[in-house]
Design goal:
With 145 residues, this protein is of the alpha+beta class. The chain contains four helices and eight strands, in the order βαβββαβαβββα. The protein has a single domain (4-131), classed as 2,3-Dihydroxybiphenyl 1,2-Dioxygenase, domain 1 (Roll). It has helices spanning 15-26, 64-72, 86-95, 137-140; strands at residues 4-11, 29-36, 41-48, 51-58, 75-83, 106-107, 113-117, 126-131. The chain binds cobalt (II) ion. The site of cobalt (II) ion (CO) has 6 residues, from β1 and β5. Cobalt (II) ion binds at residues 7, 9, 54, 78, 80, 128.
Length: 145
């Protein structure tokens, strides 16, 4: 199993203001900005080495992230881990009795298969699994002779 930290996601009322702070104080650059209308969010992606920081700003109060901000305030929303085989990862979690938010993977905003695991499984932190076909077991194999 090869798992890497793909991104940390922060919920913020003003994504641009927080991104500017990450840039000014830590040198992180905004790599992309997207609006995911069906989830009601604007997302800024900050490059941080091989991983990234996502800052998610709700487009209104009656969105999942809007409700998260009202209830919990700004802060860490979830951690995302890249896995080579999301079906195998979900099967392992299910066998261990983990509480899955997504019993079957769905397709995320960037076209990857993703699934969320309830915060009670990992110390109170919402965890996202992202299937990354270009990394993992296959990428770790020595080149064929
Ligand atoms: Co995410």
């Amino acid at each position: 199993m090869t798992t890497r930290l793909a991104h940390a996601n922060i919920a913020a009322p003003d994504a641009a203001a927080l991104a500017e702070k990450f840039h000014r104080l830590l040198g992180l650059e905004v790599a992309a900005e997207t609006v995911v209308a069906e989830q009601g969010v604007r997302v800024l992606l900050l490059a941080a080495g091989e991983g990234r920081v996502e800052i998610t700003e709700p487009l209104g109060p009656e969105t999942p992230v809007g409700r998260f901000l009202a209830k919990r305030g700004p802060g860490l929303h979830h951690l995302a881990f890249g896995v080579p085989d999301i079906d195998a990862a979900l099967a392992r979690l299910r066998a261990a009795g983990a509480r899955l938010i997504d019993a079957v993977p769905r397709v995320g905003a960037e076209g990857h298969r993703i699934a969320f695991v309830h915060p009670e499984t990992f110390g109170g932190v919402l965890v996202e699994l992202v299937e990354e076909e270009d990394h993992g077991a296959r990428g770790d194999l020595p080149p064929a002779r």
